[in-house]
């Protein structure tokens, strides 16, 4: 099995820059998984609303699975 280095914004966990989001502010995050493995993503202590491919609001979740080789 191939070894993967997981990154967010091209940075490994030990080199991350925190996102500063104020209470009430909306932020849109796009997850792109360029590996061949399914990968769950979550935001510690938060839920979020999924946006469907057609742009309409989807369900609220605390974890979403990002499909392999998908953005």
Q: What features would you describe in this structure?
A:
- The protein has strands at residues 39-42, 48-51, 57-61, 63-66.
- It has one domain (13-66).
- A hairpin with a 5-residue loop joins strand 2 (48-51) and strand 3 (57-61).
- It has a two-stranded antiparallel sheet. A two-stranded antiparallel ribbon has the order 2-3.
- The model has no long low-confidence stretch (mean pLDDT 86).
- The protein starts with 38 loop residues before the first strand and ends in a 5-residue tail after the last strand.
- It is built from no helices and 4 strands.
- With 71 residues, the protein is mostly beta strands.
Q: Summarize this, please?
A:
The protein is mainly β and 71 residues long.
Q: Low-confidence runs (pLDDT<50, min 5 residues)?
A: none
Globular, elongated, flat, extended or rod-shaped: what is the shape? Answer: globular
> Compute the gyration radius: what is it?
14 Å
Indicate the mean pLDDT.
86
How far apart are the termini?
22 Å
Number of helices: 0
Give the strand order, joined by hyphens, for the main sheet: 1-4
Structural class: mainly beta
> What is the chains' assembly state?
single chain
Spell out the key features of this protein:
single chain, 71 residues, mainly beta, two-stranded antiparallel ribbon, 4 strands, 0% helix
């Amino acid at each position: 099995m191939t070894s993967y280095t997981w990154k967010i914004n091209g940075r490994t966990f030990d080199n991350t820059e925190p996102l500063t989001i104020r209470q009430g502010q909306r932020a849109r995050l796009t997850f792109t998984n360029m590996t061949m493995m399914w990968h769950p993503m979550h935001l510690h202590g938060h839920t979020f609303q999924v946006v469907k491919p057609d742009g309409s609001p989807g369900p609220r979740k605390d974890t979403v699975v990002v499909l392999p080789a998908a953005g």
